[in-house]
Design goal:
The complex is a heterodimer of chains A (222) and B (249).
Chain A: H1 3-46, H2 51-66, H3 69-79, H4 89-115, H5 118-126, H6 131-161, H7 173-184, H8 187-217
Helix pairs in contact in A: 1-2, 1-4, 1-7, 1-8, 2-4, 3-4, 4-6, 5-6, 6-8, 7-8
Chain B: E1 6-17, E2 20-31, E3 35-39, H1 46-53, E4 61-66, E5 71-73, H2 80-89, E6 90-93, H3 105-116, H4 121-134, H5 150-163, E7 168-172, H6 180-195, E8 199-203, H7 207-213, E9 216-221, E10 224-230, H8 235-240
Helix pairs in contact in B: 3-4, 3-5, 4-5, 5-6
The chains are: A mainly alpha (222), B alpha/beta (249).
Bound molecules: adenosine-5'-triphosphate and magnesium ion.
Pfam family, one (chain B): ABC_tran
Domain ABC transporter (chain B): 8-247
Keywords (chain B): ATP-binding, Cell membrane, Membrane, Nucleotide-binding, Transport
Chain lengths: 222, 249
């Protein structure tokens, strides 16, 4: 490695990390939070006894999982304006990622709810709880525990997927890298550098995931 | 006292799963302050009967009446509110305890009183603590269920039921998931409750217990009550006098 390369890495690291902090991470966090809210709602709809409600939820999940994220992003950012609905890059990205996470996480949440033993519902009913109250106080907290590992994986995927937002002009980690690369012409060096930054972020998230799982495990029998 | 009007009256209760009838026209009277035990081979319908009594299972026909409470005719469409009213009259103790694993022992016990019955928290905590101490689990108040033995978990299950102050206690084979050496503790607690005058319906395989403690033993087979062993009534005496005072007939 030449010393020019090294100094390029050092000077570009600042802007790239900054773009991660100002772009990638908030984009992932906000989309995940909104996506999770969508997921819980869709999972509950999916479990509803009302046919049409559960069919709607199934349709949503099927469309989200059956189409590429990049296409979803483009439909929202480049497609909607042609029917008179123009959305800025950031809100477009958040909308696309939230809808996407909502579809994947809905299945995780649904499976987690179903994994709570039936006896827990019955015990909740016996102490006088309605379905709603039982869900909120007894079932969802237990489902939350079960869903931490798969949801963590969803979040880590999302962090990496936010790089797609570079294609709709959101200044995040990868777009920043592309700009510097185009300017300097050192594509290999800069793209590897971007990869390294993503990797470090994901390593940190995996470590956090492990800690969280151990913490939640403390109160559950095996 | 309760001789004239039973606390719980069941008439013509029928339930099937798919095409299989599981309960056929069950009649049952449970006077206040008495213990009724249900015995019978596996699959005879004991669990299903108990679950029908508190609406966990909805029978197709028959009536369940709680004196001074709801009377539900399952022949008609039954609203969720009626079912809830029926459920509020009783509390069930499960074979597998079904404690809430994400809550401490204390929180398991006060969940119903505080969250559902909306009683003041300090009062519920004081009562729960007293009940837990009574069953020898005062120190386990802040423990999580997984750290308790089966016998301890079942005693918490019983305390959770008592804390609701139900009129009727339903037990579904409360000791059959326990190691043999732990059965005694739970049975003796149930004897105490019987002696205190709680109205109880108990499905059990503990024949000794069923005969000793019950005012009436019902033998079920194939979804019907094939035999009723009634004993001299002595609940009033038992309520007054020391626990377990011999009142066999
Ligand atoms: N949810 C269900 N769906 C279908 N069949 C059921 C269901 N619950 C119970 N049954 C059937 O109903 C019959 C009575 O079951 P139940 O559990 O009431 O018997 P039990 O007397 O409690 O037996 P055990 O002593 O084994 O607990 C059995 O044949 C059982 O297979
Ligand atoms: Mg049974």
């Amino acid at each position: 490695m030449t010393s020019e390369n090294l100094s390029l890495i050092l000077t570009s690291l600042g802007p790239i990390v900054l773009a991660a902090i100002a772009g990638t991470i908030p984009l992932a966090l906000i989309s995940f939070a909104v996506g999770l809210a969508i997921a819980v709602a869709v999972a509950l709809m999916r479990l509803s006894k009302v046919r049409i409600v559960s069919a709607l939820a199934r349709f949503y999940v099927s469309v989200v999982r059956g189409t590429p994220l990049l296409v979803q992003l483009f439909v929202i950012f480049y497609g909607l304006p042609s029917i008179g609905l123009t959305i800025d890059p950031w809100p477009s990205a958040i909308a696309a990622f939230s809808i996407n996470v909502g579809g994947y996480a809905a299945e995780i949440v649904r499976a987690a709810i179903l994994s709570v033993p039936k006896g827990q519902w019955e015990a909740a009913h016996v102490i006088g709880m309605s379905r709603r109250l039982a869900l909120r106080r007894i079932i969802l907290p237990q489902a939350a525990r079960v869903s931490v590992p798969p949801l963590s994986n969803t979040f880590i995927s999302l962090v990496k997927d936010t790089s797609l937002a570079s294609l709709i002009l959101v200044t995040e980690l990868f777009r920043q890298t592309q700009e510097i690369a185009a300017f300097s012409g050192e594509f290999m060096t800069l793209y590897l550098e971007a990869a390294l930054v993503y990797w470090v972020i994901c390593l940190g998230l995996s470590a956090a995931q492990n800690r969280l799982e151990r913490r939640l495990d403390r109160y559950v029998a095996h | 006292m309760s001789r004239t009007e039973p606390l719980l009256t069941v008439r013509g209760l029928a339930k099937s799963f798919g095409a299989t009838p599981v309960l056929r026209s069950i009649d049952l009277d449970v006077p206040a302050g008495t213990v009724t035990t249900l015995i019978g081979p596996s699959g005879s319908g004991k669990t299903t009967l108990l679950r029908c009594l508190n609406g966990l299972e909805v029978p197709e026909a028959g009536t369940v009446t709680v004196s001074g409470g709801p009377s539900v005719d399952f022949g008609d469409a039954v609203s969720q509110r009626r079912l809830a009213a029926l459920r509020d009259c009783s509390a069930m103790v499960f074979q597998h305890y079904n404690l809430f694993p994400h809550k401490t022992v204390l929180d398991n016990v006060i969940e119903g009183p505080v969250i559902v019955q909306r009683r003041p928290r300090p009062e519920a905590v004081a009562e729960a603590t007293a009940l837990l101490e009574r069953v020898g689990l005062g120190e386990k108040r802040d423990a999580y269920p997984f750290s308790l033995s089966g016998g301890q978990q079942q005693r918490v299950g019983i305390v959770r039921a008592l804390a609701l102050k139900p009129r009727l206690l339903l037990f579904d084979e409360p000791t059959s998931a326990l190691d043999p050496e732990l059965v005694g503790d739970v049975l003796s607690l149930m004897r105490e409750l019987a002696a205190e005058g709680w109205t109880m319906v108990v499905a059990t395989h503990e024949l000794q217990f069923a005969r000793e403690v019950a005012n009436e033993v019902l033998f079920m087979d194939g979804g019907v009550i094939v035999e009723r062993g009634r004993r001299r009534r002595c609940s009033a005496a038992r309520t007054r006098s020391a626990r377990g005072a011999s009142c066999s007939g």
